[in-house]
Amino acid sequence: MSSPRIVEAEFIKSAQSIADSLPEDMSEVVFLGRSNVGKSSTLNGLTQRKNLAKSSATPGKTQLINFFETRYLYDGQSYPVRFVDLPGFGYAKVSKSLKEVWQRNLVEFIEQRVSIRLYIHLRDARHPHAKIDDDVEAYISEFIRPDQRYLTVFTKIDKLNQKERNKLKRDFPGSITVSNLKKSGFDRVHKEILSTIFGIDFTPKPKKEGEEA
Ligand SMILES: Nc1nc2c(ncn2[C@@H]2O[C@H](COP(=O)(O)OP(=O)(O)O)[C@@H](O)[C@H]2O)c(=O)[nH]1
Ligand SMILES: [Mg+2]
């Protein structure tokens, strides 16, 4: 059986708030994480595009909600999914008043946007117990709906040795790890996205009696 992959990905628009966002006519995956966690790199890696999400920190652009439309191909079927790149938190160089406005808009988007089906929280594998990330996880757990899922994806796994990787897996059993450097781990993220949104079952089927391997 083939692996799911994204065959089309296109930037659609940037928004400041839920009010000027796209209509809620497609299932959405939101990506959130601290600035510099590797969010843009992960979006580029998942979509196999070099510069779909700008990896360079362009102040201004990075404070907006960015929408991308993607199309998966899996088992001969096409599956459209919208990716939403949220501003990184913990950024500097933003005036206090702008920060307040931005946060209000963002909080409203995260909590009230009906089309969100999956929250992908990117965390740096080197700092798995960062308080700000624990706070974000606790925050999302307060309002997450039954039709929504929350997934932790650790980036920069290439920076950890085997012992550290084992410990991370023990501490965060439901998490996925990726490396944008090695381009690894994306397959599991794709499967989580398609199983959450379209109910596709990726668990290997048990072999029937007498069936060849
Ligand atoms: N070693 C390593 N570096 C990474 C990885 N992901 C991102 N980076 C680097 O981390 C920095 C920030 O990445 P970027 O995608 O712009 O982060 P963003 O601010 O969250 O969008 C860049 O220098 C990337 O090359 C990874 O998985 N492994
Ligand atoms: Mg970025």
Provide the fold topology.
Elements: E1 5-15, E2 28-33, H1 39-47, E3 65-74, E4 77-85, H2 96-112, E5 116-124, H3 131-143, E6 149-155, H4 162-171, E7 176-177, H5 186-198
Parallel strand pairs: 2-4, 2-5, 5-6, 6-7
Antiparallel strand pairs: 1-3, 3-4
Bound molecules: guanosine-5'-diphosphate (GDP) and magnesium ion.
Task: List its salient traits.
213 residues; alpha/beta; Rossmann fold; seven-stranded mixed sheet; 7 strands; 29% helix; globular; binds guanosine-5'-diphosphate; binds magnesium ion
How would you characterize this protein structure?
The protein is of the alpha/beta class. The protein has a single domain, classed as P-loop containing nucleotide triphosphate hydrolases (Rossmann fold). It has five helices and seven strands; from the N terminus they run E-E-H-E-E-H-E-H-E-H-E-H. The protein has a seven-stranded mixed sheet, with helices on both faces. Strand 3 and strand 4 form a beta hairpin. The radius of gyration is 18 Å and the shape is globular. The model has no long low-confidence stretch (mean pLDDT 90). Bound molecules: guanosine-5'-diphosphate and magnesium ion (MG).
